[in-house]
Amino acid sequence: MEYTKEVLDHFQNPRNVGEIKDADGVGQVGNMKCGDVMYTYIKVGSRPSSVGSNELQTANRKPQTEEYIEDVKFKTLGCAAAIASSSMMTELAKGKSLTEIEKLSRDDINEALGVLPKQKYHCSILSADAIHKAVEDYRSRKKEIK
Amino acid sequence: MKHIYLDNSATTQPSSEVILEVKKVMEQNWGNPSSVHSFGQDARTVLDQSRRKVAKFLNCREDEIIFTSGGSESDNLALRGVVEGYIKKNELKTGKLPHIITSMVEHHAVLHTVEEMESQGLIATTYLKPDQNGIISADQIEAAICDNTILVSLIYVNNETGVITPIKEIGERLKNINSDRKDRIFFHTDAVQAVEYLNIVPEMLNVDLLTIAAHKFHGPRGVGVLYVRKGIPIRSQISGGDQEFRMRAGTENVAAIAGMAKALHQIESRESLITNQVAELRNRLEAGIAASISDAIINGVGANRAPHISNVSFLNAEGEAIILNLDFLGIAVSSGSACTSRSLSPSHVLSAMGIPPEKAHGSIRFSLSHETTIEEIDEVLRVLPGIIKNLREMSPFK
Fold first, then answer.
1. Do B373 and B265 belong together in one domain?
2. Of B224, B247, B269, which residue is a domain's last?
3. B112 shares a domain with B170
């Protein structure tokens, strides 16, 4: 396989491997049949909003807050590309606001990895889907509590 | 870094004698064997001598040896050659398509050729399903035979699992069946993985066509043989000159052919069979894996297997990830995982044996040679448990 340095690095030294026991959201994608399974766990935090908030703050006098990925971990069963794209996804996701996460695409992960071999592209799809699902899970849990 | 090569079913290292032979012929006998002048005749001499050596190895006639570019071409020539030979002979007859019996565990060179002929509307096919150990039986063959069956094609030693098909027994059965038939059924075997370890003499096996490829037994790449029993009507697949008894056009690859003859000669001249030596190492590897790694399943373990191949499924670890981790440490193996192919489905061989995808994805093929050492096997056993453990810890499943 013609893997880039980034892919091999993230495969050999994956970042953020593991589980978050009291996760706010969990995203599970893939299945045993296709050989790649990925679980993503997130902790969501709250912080003063950073984007375009100055005017609003002065107007309302009440600081705007935004939700962001405070922590993210993954567990993956799969090929080198699946593991590397999981690892890269956690790096890209950490610290990002949930609005930004929604815009995090398959191509963002693929590009950060220096482009996966064509037939491996579905692995990067998987990790983008996993974080989106985790956020979805977080939001549906929040709704239930409300 | 010390390198350990356990992918001998993919290709073998050419022996230094083979390399010297190829070099010598390229330097000294580079003429075209079809030329009348001395350059050509020198090359012709080498070609004839090589054919004699190969015929001796297979205990057959020299005109039963067709040199090809390798295993895939030999398989294509055998299958398409027999079918087209039959169609040509029977062009005035109408009715049923010629019927071929093969199995679901064949090499793609056979499987895809048969599938293609089927989709072209040239043949009808029965694909026999092996038992859980990967074995196709003579009874299955007999049960699948129809009036219009013209050919049976089965792999001798499976390239993924090492499982041996009882070719001799099936050949005998077909011989009996043929004695009562007007149109006899021909029998082809792909013996590519068997050359160094099993008797492949066509007469003994009762086969009519047999495929071998030099690079699987320490010979050069790009050369192989199709043995065709005298009198079997096959049709050439490459049009052109009259080379190879008009069965395969193209200027002969004399240097590679001589290299292949040298490699066969080396097999013949070994003082003892390497079968036991290689089997002992394979057994050591499998026992070591069983002792140090849980949930490791040896595929085809209940079958008669060639000594040089071991196929192991590691649950909750993916094949390509295992390969790369071993490769970082200089150890070369292969896998039946989908991730090592361009498709999304795992090995067709393991699937046909009823092995579920989650086990097939974690399969590793270790293939040894007579050059494999006990130290190399022990090194694999030293590092493999840690690799599997790391991958399993990363997996969401326990």
1. no
2. B269
3. yes
Considering the domain architecture, whether residues B263 and B290 belong to the same structural domain is answered as no
Selecting from A8, A33, A83 the residue whose C-beta is nearest the C-beta of B357 gives A33
Convert the pLDDT of each residue in B15-59 to its tens digit.
Answer: 999 999 999 999 999 999 999 999 999 999 999 999 999 999 999
Residue A139 is encoded by which pair of tokens?
A: 């939001």
If pLDDT is split at 50, 70 and 90, which confidence band does A59 have?
low
Q: Best residue in A17, A38, A77, A122 to probe B by mutation, most B CBs within 10 Å?
A: A77
pLDDT at A61: 57
Q: Please tell me whether residues B154 and B86 are part of one structural domain.
A: yes
Task: Say whether A78 and B357 touch across the interface (CB within 8 A).
Answer: no
For residue B42, give its domain range.
16-269
* pLDDT (mean) for B189-202: 97
The whole-number pLDDT of residue B353 equals: 97
- Contact criterion met (CB < 8 Å) for B396 and A36: no
Closest by Cα among B197, B199, B334, B194 to B278: B197
Task: Compare CB distances from A77 to B316, B340, B346 and report the shortest one's residue.
Answer: B316
Last residue of a domain, one of B234, B269, B304: B269
Residues B260 and B280 grouped into a single domain: no
Residue A23 forms contact with B (CB below 8 Å): no
Report pLDDT digits (tens) over B274-294.
999 999 999 999 999 999 999
Quick check: is A79 catalytic? no
Facing B394 at nearest CB: one of A8, A75, A120: A75
Residue of B339, B381, B383, B391 marked catalytic: B339
Set out the domains of chain A in order of their start, with CATH numbers: 5-145 (3.90.1010.10)
Q: CB B358 to CB A35 under 8 A?
A: yes
> Does B7 map to a domain?
no
How many CA atoms lie less than 13 Å away from B184 in the CB half-sphere? 14
Total structural domains within chain B = 2
B241 and B92 within one domain: yes
- Domain with residue B296: its CATH number is 3.90.1150.10
Same domain, B210 and B279: no
pTM for this entry = 0.93
Look over chain B and give the mean of its residue pLDDT values, rounded to a whole number.
95
Q: Under an 8 A CB cutoff, do B394 and A122 touch?
A: no
User: Can you list the pairs that A94-100 forms with residues at least 24 positions away whose Cβ atoms lie under 8 Å?
Assistant: A94/A16, A94/A69, A95/A68, A95/A69, A96/A68, A96/A69, A97/A50, A97/A51, A97/A66, A97/A67, A97/A68, A98/A44, A98/A66, A98/A67, A98/A68, A98/A69, A98/A135, A98/A138, A99/A66
Phi and psi at B164, nearest 5°, equal -95, 130
